[in-house]
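Table S5 (text form). Sequence records supplied for joint modeling of the two-component complex.
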Amino acid sequence: MLLALDWLLILEKLVLIVIVVMASLLIAMYTTFAERKVAAVLQDRRGPNRAGPFGILQPVADGLKLFFKEEIIPNFSSKFLFIMGPSLAMLTAIMTGAVVPWGDKVHLFGRDIALQIADVNVGILYVFAVVSMGVYGIMIGGWASNNKYSLMGGLRAASQIISYELPMGISLIALLMVTGTLSLKEMVIQQQGGMWNIVYQPLGFLIFLICAFAECNRTPFDLPEAENELIGGYHTEYSSMKLGFYLFSEYINMFVSSVIMSTMFFGGYDVLPFVDESQWGLSDNIMALIGIAALMIKVFCFIFLFMWVRWTIPRFRYDQLMRLGWRVLIPLALANMLVTGAIVLLKQNNWHF
Amino acid sequence: MQALTNRVKQVDRREMSFLEKIYLVSIFKGMAITFRHMFKKKPTINYPEKTRPFSPVFRGLHILNRDAEGRENCTACGLCAVACPAEAITMEAAERKPGEENLYREEKYAAKYEINMLRCIFCGLCEEACPKDAIYLSETFAPADYQRKQFIYNKNELLIPHPKNEPEAYQKALGNRAKK
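The corresponding structure-token record, covering 533 residues in total, follows.
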């Protein structure tokens, strides 16, 4: 019975995993480059343009530089945890991609291959579980460095991420009440024929977006690594590729949260709202490619938004951050949830009280 | 209090309105400003590929001049070394031997001529002091090297290429500022 497993399925998933991991690493790599270019453009500069044509080899050069740097493990640190910190951050950052539907399905070698590693029926909960694990990487790194600045950075990261996870979760509950499913794939399918969820949940999206910024430790919420207060924050003691892992995981997180946002609020791999793409009469494989392209365009818009905000808005003060989280976003998310719930109930009751 | 100038601007201390309190409007305003900057002209000049246009009196590295037949102008009179406020120029004079008339224009020439580019302040006083038009400052600038001693330029580095033997290099070194 055990051998009756569909080995091809396992192979297919394995290939998909490798592709997704490699793609998210590659995209994260080029996001670092894009970040510098966007920053430069927004500040009337040119940005990196020396390595290769238009500087496109810059991320390779950065990566090589990080690899060749001396690996320093402070002797007052706890070595195991010191190494575990960045590994955990990286691991959790990459793991999220498992439940994302990257496209519909392709038809290859006589098999229908779903472009999703695992269609978990509680996909969103999985995403949340993994994302909230991500803070352990930062916390452990900050703690293991045995340095008060790192510890402060780690503490800030922990409290910030926990605070912003609440409104994020609540704003998501409103969305779940609208869609009635926890599976990301089904959400996309629901959005394919009709409107995208952003129309039903604009406030929920705004809250989710703000919380996503906070979860990714991006400016204006980048207090865990506030250079001018905490030297480097949680990665003060880190060097070489361990630092690279932290920076990298931040960019992967950014990519993944962009993917999640596009999937949940902007129709995922759906090309256009209100349009039934199956009427176009294109073959499955081409449709899947177009779908992936559509998703990627949405994701890149979000990534650009992340950068645009980073180079526009100054950092919050810590009390402002906490006030925004607890006294603005959570009540707002709760109100959003209540109103959505009421409307959903009314609709089920055919608009009778 | 009486204001000292008419440029005083009172600080607005009114309570923030609701719209101001939720910040979103001002955030969008700020983002619009940064977005507009994407389309602004960048003031940066891609340096090694492009250089800024220099003023006609720009003073770069020195060039030791030759005349039209390719003979060195310098007679090692030492006026440039005397004029140099940074004492960057040293030279040794030698007498022209018979048969060297095609090398040196006059009977005396500089056997050794060195300028320490690390001392030089590029004031151009050597150029002004020279009675023979033998030294002038070019548009070349920003030399880079790994060792200090490489910055002591001798005649090899300073002399302009021979106008007859290497006319192309000569024209290039001449640029558009050689004295006619």
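Note: Helices of chain B lie at 18-21, 24-37, 79-83, 125-129, 155-158, 167-174.
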